[in-house]
Structure of Glucose-1-phosphate adenylyltransferase:
Amino acid sequence: MSSRPVNSGPLARHAMAYVLAGGRGSRLMELTDRRAKPAVFFGAKSRIIDFALSNAINSGIRRIGVATQYKAHSLIRHMQRGWNFLRPERNESFDILPASQRVSETEWYAGTADAVYQNLDIIESYGPRYMVILAGDHVYKMDYEVMLQRHCESGADVTVACIEVPRMEASAFGVMHVDEEDRIVSFLEKPKDPPSIPGQPEVALASMGIYVFETKLLAEELRRDAATPGSDRDFGKDIIPALVARGTAVAHRFQDSCVRSSEQAEAYWRDVGTVDAYWQANIDLTDVVPALDLYDRDWPIWTYAEVTPPAKFVLDDDGRRGMAVDSLVSGGCIISGSHVRRSLLFPNTRVRSYGEIEGAVLLPGVVVGRHVRLKKVVVDSGVALPDGLVVGEDPEEDERRFRRSAGGVCLITQPMIDALSG
C-alpha cells in the first residue's frame, strides 16, 4: 500500500519511465524489415517512440530507460541524436538498454517483464519511488502525473491504464474486468466474449500496456516471476494477472489523463500496428482539425530535428504547377510541378513534374519521378519511384507488383521497384 508524501510536489519527480521498445511489429510488413516498430517514422517528422518519450518529459519525469531488442540500430541512433538533452548533473538520466545478456549468457529478453528484470540493478541505482512502464509503439498524448496521483490515492499494488473500446472489438486486446470502483477483478488476454464495464454493457476496458508500480513492489514481483518455472516473463500474461489474483490492481481510464487540444476532442490513442492503421493515422493528420494535435505548444512532441532547408514549391504553368493542399510537408522537400493532396511528405522528399499525388505517406528521402500518379500509398524511406509509375488505380496490378493491404493501401519498397525492371 502506498500513500502520497506530504508537500512533495509532483509525483513525476520521484518516478522513472521505462519504455519497452524491443518489438518488431511484423504486421507492418516491410516497414519493419530494417527497423523496430517504435523506430518507424510517423507524422511527417517524428518516430513512433517519440510519443511515449514526449509524454514522459511533458509529464515531468526526468529519469527514462528504453529497452531495445529487435533490429535496434536506427532506434538507438535516433535516441542518441534526439534525446541526449537529459543531464545527470540535474538528477536526470536517459539509458538505452539493449538486450545484452546481462543476467544470462544464453538469453535475450524473454518477455516484457524480463526486459525490466534484467536491468533492475540499473533502475535501483537511481532509487526512483515509482515506475511507469510504457509501450513504445503507440501514438497518443497522456499526462502520466495524473495516473501517478490516482495510483497513490487508490493504494493499489499496480495501476493499469485502459482505453474504452466497443465490447466486441476488445477481443484483440488484454481486457480488464472491473467492479463499480474500477478495481480489476480479472485480466483476460484476447477473450472471445469480453466482459463489459459496469453500467456500460457495450463497452470494455482494454489495456494500453501502461502500468504504474512502486519500485520496491515491482522488483519483488519481477524476482518472484523470474524464479517461477514456466513463466512467459510477461507483464500481460504473468505479472498483472498475479497481482490481480492476490493483490490490488486498479484500472485508470485514459480519458482522465488524455491531453487534448480542446474539451470536445476525442481521447486519441492509436495502435498503428498494421499498414492500414499506420496509413490512416498519418492521413488523419491532414484533416483541418485533426484529432491528434501536433501543433500544441503546451504538449510538444519532441524528436530529433534534422537541419534541413525550407520546403520549396516551384513551377506555376498550366499542367505543371508545384502545389500541396491538405498536406504536411517537411523541411528539405521540393515539389516541382506536381499536385500533392492529402499527403505527408517527410524530410528531403522530391516530387518531380506532371505528377498527381493523393493519400500518400512518403517517408524521408523518397524521390518521385515525372508523370507519376499515386493514390493511397506508403513509400518507404529512400525509394526512387520511376517516371510514369501509376499506383492505386488498378488493384490487380498493384497486388502483383507491391504489398497491397486488405484496406487497399500499397506499401512500396526499393526492392519492389528494382524488381519491376528485373
